[in-house]
Structure formats: structure tokens, C-alpha cells
Protein: TIGR00269 family protein
Organism: Caldicellulosiruptor changbaiensis
Amino acid sequence: MKCVRCKQKAKILLKRHNAAFCNECFLYYYRNQVTKNIRKYKMFDKKDKILAVISGGKDSMALWDVLVKEGYNVVAMYINLGIGEYSNRSQKVVESFASKNNLPLIVKDIKKEFGLDIYKLSKTLKRSPCSICGSIKRYLFNKVAYDGGFSAVATGHNLDDEAATLLGNVLSWEEGYLARQAPVLPQTHPKLIKKVKPLYTLTERENLYYVLLNKIEFLHEECPHSVGARSILFKEVLNKLEEESPGTKQRFLNGFLEKGRRHFQDVSEKLELRECKTCGQVTTVEECSFCRFVKICNQQQET
Ligand code: FES
Ligand code: ZN
């Protein structure tokens, strides 16, 4: 097996591209994909200040490293969500990468800073910890980016994540979610910062290979709450299809972005956006869920 670019011995085969690469050319391919995605969707440019959300897993660590190497103005943000040892271990990984490479990092701790506890909230509101965690993260991504004058929030979502989300949304015809699934979510309100996914064409396997080649430390374990999640099942189904027919995930996602997505634009709920009466962040109700969460946790502490 020869590298398609330099004809030396190849180290990794990417069946969906019908291509094999040596390590050096893989890194070239990888960085090229990322910069192409950024340009294609006009995600940001070198003048913009980018907030990269880092969990400590391979995807976000790869995102952080590649954006820094490509010369973007990146500040990383890590959120400690109070998920026991998993959170402590991931915080260490992120902090050590920042200090080794002398990179700016914002750390938010939802318990220390806001008194939030996703387990208490999950019990009181009868919602899964993941859905509470998701709301908190989305709120903080935007709030930190808005307060800090950032132009975009970048996340490490990969091709596998995006194809699995798409499959889930198609299976239950979630029109609103389908309308909003894209590599870029543009600013629809002056206080809502653009969200971007520069790795959306790269697979989990490619992100893993990238961090291994660059000797980047990352947290190997997934969040304990992801066990049994529907998204994992969707990923398994897509992996089966991909094995039989390489390129399936990519065709599914790109086909949707190019041909399918536009059909959902006018059915996307026209939710009225307003500012939260407590914190001023954008919401669709009087008080945003984050502020309600803070109240619930503080009340519980008092009693
Ligand atoms: Fe949020 Fe797992 S990362 S519940
Ligand atoms: Zn609020």
C-alpha cells in the first residue's frame, strides 16, 4: 500500500476516499480538510477571536491543536460539569496541554462558580443528566463567547457525530433540528455567537490518528452517561453500513447539507427570541433554563 501523495509506504487507509497516506501526508490531508471546511463555510479567519470548547477527548484536543498550528487566534474553554472523577481527569488533561504549550485556557466549574449540580437537577426536573448538561454547556459556550468578544464558538464534532445526529433526527423527523443541523450556525441575534464545527468531515478514527501522531494526551474514556445513549446505537448502525459501503456516512451527511436541509428551512420553528429577565442571555421564555437551574440548586442548598 503506497501513499497516494508521496508514493512512500502508506500507514493509514481511508477507504471512503479510496486513498492511503504515510504519516506526514496524513497530517497534510488532515490540516487541509480543516482549513478547507473553515473557508468553505466562512467559519472565521485569522483576525477573528475563536473560543474552542475542549472536553479533553480526542476530537476536541485535535481541534485545539490543529487550530493553533494553523495560526488561528484561539482561546480554549473547559467546563467542569461535576461528573465525578471523569470531570477531574479531563480537567487535568486539558490544563496540562495548555500549560505545556503555553496556550490560553478558560476554566469554568459549574459547582464552584454557580452552585450547579446536574444530578440534583436531573432528579428535581425528571430530566436525564445529559439533557441538563447539554443546556448548561450551550449556555456557557455562548455566554463566555459573548462576554469575551469572541466571533465564533468552535466544537470538535466529527463526521461520525454529525451523521449519527442526522440519522436520529431523520428517524423521528425532527424538522426543527434538521433545519438547524449544519457545520455553521449563523448569528440570528446580536447576543447569539456563531457556532462552528471545523472537523465535520473528519472521522473519529482520523481524529484519533491525528492525536496519536502528534503525541497529544487525551482522555480515553467517554462520559459515563454516554453509555447506552441512542447516539451510540446510531453510530454502530452507520459503522456497519460504512463497512459494507465505504463513504456512506459522508454521502449521507453531505447529501443532506447540499440537497435535503433547504427543504426544512421554512418549517423550522420561528421561535421568538427574547432576553432572559435575570441574566440577559437569549432565550425563548421569560427566564432562561440556566438561571432557573441556579435558583433550584441554591434553594435546595438553603433547605
Ligand atoms: Fe454531559 Fe456526559 S458530557 S452528561
Ligand atoms: Zn438567564
Q: What stands out?
A: The beta strands are 12-14, 19-21, 49-53, 73-80, 105-109, 152-154, 184-185, 194-196, 274-275, 282-283.
